[in-house]
Amino acid sequence: MIVTHIGPPLARTGGPAGVLLQLKAGLSRTGTGGHIVRLPPVAVPQAAPAPPLTARMLAPLRHLRRVLFGKPRYYRPDLGAMRQRDGQTARTLDGVWREAEAYAAPLLDEAADADLLIAHELPAAAMALAARRPHQQVWMVVHPPMPFALFHIWCWAVPEQEWRDVLAFPDVQRYVDRELEVWRSVDRVFIATPDALDELGRIDRRFLTAGNMVYGLTGASAPGGSKAESIGALRKRFGLPLDQPIGLFLGQALPYRAFDRLMAAVELLSDAAAMPGVIAVAGPPKDTVPRHKRLRALGPVSDVADLLRAVDFFINVNRFNLFDLSIIEASEAGLPLLLHATGGNRTFETLGAGCVMIDSIEPAAIARGIEAMFAMRPDGRRALGRRSRACYDAHLTVEHHATRHLSLYDEASITCMTSNS
């Protein structure tokens, strides 16, 4: 069985690039079970250039400008233009689609002998369907917890808008219809868990019955983490207090992640003197995180395993949840999980991870959850953390990830042989 994955270059990130990188790590340990498995190339790391002298000299001036005039205002497209049929929204989505086609095309050209094409983005799946040969199956893996058009327009073009308003844009609806047709046309739609499919159904119920579904949990492992440094040394390195409970938000400030609700919840927390505790924020640029005595903005972090060892619990309050790699890594680190009880987060609870679930992402509900974690006795948090690590060992390693894929390839191989006989 020749299996070709069609996706972006592998990289230490979320989405297809990150999931495929974890699959590559898993297959390196399990082998490929007699299958030939082709993955996209690993992305070439880009070294960050040292800031030029002029940039260092102007840094104090930029800081003064921000003090005087506030944060810079970013360009946002005109909402009226975004709502017009065949307008700005269509041009934006068409451009994203063409970019995905550009990296998919050479991979498809090299996949003429493949028995199974697994596309990791919607445009790649559409291309694979158009190019498929009689002997080939086409599967599509779903990575974002929402339709392609809503993800790109809401998250990147108009993040201040309510998602239902964005979903109503005529061109977003047209793209949703196009996506549903791809779901109906591929041989299998691959998603982590039925709970994750529920998130698509919350947005448009047609997704619940559109595809021939197959489920397979993702596995992951955070890079780094030699465990040579003590917790105190790690906290000192990351600029975190030594004597307070620390929660961690790890990710980007995209609207589906409800970072805005988390920041609103911080304002509702009890007085820090009466209830000590801080929240470390890793991922968003430091200058996008509000200044607050409860917050420690870390910016992008590469040594994720060390950071996870330095904190006491993990926070995920996404509006929509698929099956987040960062939660898997937090489970690997043996952390208690403070999670919004929706989508794939519910699967972590079902699997037995050490979860404290929040039924709402209203700021007051998030604040109550954070305070419960701050107030919990250390041995209580450690007990939850042991459950998370046991869940990881039983279900979520990269070897589990690879083994689940190989089992599905075996099933696809039987289907191929049956259809060709």
Structure write-up:
The protein is an alpha/beta fold and 421 residues long. The chain has helices at 15-30, 53-69, 79-83, 88-109, 122-131, 148-157, 163-167, 170-185, 194-203, 207-210, 231-238, 259-266, 304-310, 325-332, 344-350, 363-375, 378-396, 398-420, and strands spanning 2-6, 36-38, 116-119, 137-141, 188-191, 213-215, 246-250, 278-282, 295-299, 313-316, 337-340, 355-358. The strands form two sheets. Strands 2-1-3-4-5-6 form a six-stranded parallel beta sheet. Strands 9-8-7-10-11-12 form a six-stranded parallel beta sheet, with helices on both faces. Strand 11 (337-340), helix 15 (344-350) and strand 12 form a beta-alpha-beta unit. Helix 9 runs antiparallel to helix 15. The longest helix has 23 residues, at 398-420. The model has no long low-confidence stretch (mean pLDDT 93).
List keywords for this structure.
421 residues, alpha/beta, six-stranded parallel beta sheet, globular
* Main pleated sheet: 6 strands, parallel
Summarize model confidence as the mean pLDDT.
93
Low-pLDDT segments, ≥5 res: none
What oligomeric state do the depicted chains represent? single chain
Sheet-strand content, in percent, reads: 5-15%
By DSSP (H or I, 4+ residues per run), the number of helices equals: 18
- SSE order in H/E notation? EHEHHHEHEHHHEHHEHEHEEHEHEHEHHH
